[in-house]
Amino acid sequence: DVLLVLNGPNLNLLGQRDPQQYGTTTLADIEASVRERAGEHGLDVDFRQSNHEGELVDWIQQSRTSAAGIVINPAAYTHTSVAIRDALEIVTCPVVEVHMSNIHQREPFRHHSYVSAVADGVIAGLGAHGYVLAVDAVATLRAHP
Ligand code: DQA
């Protein structure tokens, strides 16, 4: 069973980008800790990042019926993308939204998420550890739907 982990724009620069806000952990570090925790739950991981909204939509559509779960940090598209929201609404597996920063503590334009309405749960403000918690959440949601 494959867990799809999707990362939106600029998350490829984690570690270099605004370390005050996002820390020094890189996306490769996050991928490693996600793979380790997913393995403990018997899940394989398909870990992806894109700076392109439509590519994220394509990946969500492709995994619509096959993914065991989706963990998504839509990054800036959180606050703008009806298309990503609509794609996630169609999937049948558990969906967990992750933000490294606490978006509610930040600028008002980050307070609203289009994605939250179609996510089973949301994790924000816990840094890179949020991704690991999201893996646990998917495993729990699969065991107790
Ligand atoms: C983010 C929060 C978003 O507001 C921002 O645009 C990001 C990262 C986070 O992980 O905290 O790129 O999703």
From TrEMBL:
The gene is aroQ. The record marks R17 as: Transition state stabilizer. The lineage of its organism: Bacteria, Bacillati, Actinomycetota, Actinomycetes, Micrococcales. Catalyzes a trans-dehydration via an enolate intermediate. It comes from the Bacteria. HAMAP family: AroQ. The active site is at Y22, H99. PROSITE patterns: DEHYDROQUINASE_II. This is 3-dehydroquinate dehydratase. Its EC number is 4.2.1.10. Pathway: Metabolic intermediate biosynthesis; chorismate biosynthesis; chorismate from D-erythrose 4-phosphate and phosphoenolpyruvate: step 3/7. Keywords: Amino-acid biosynthesis, Aromatic amino acid biosynthesis, Lyase.
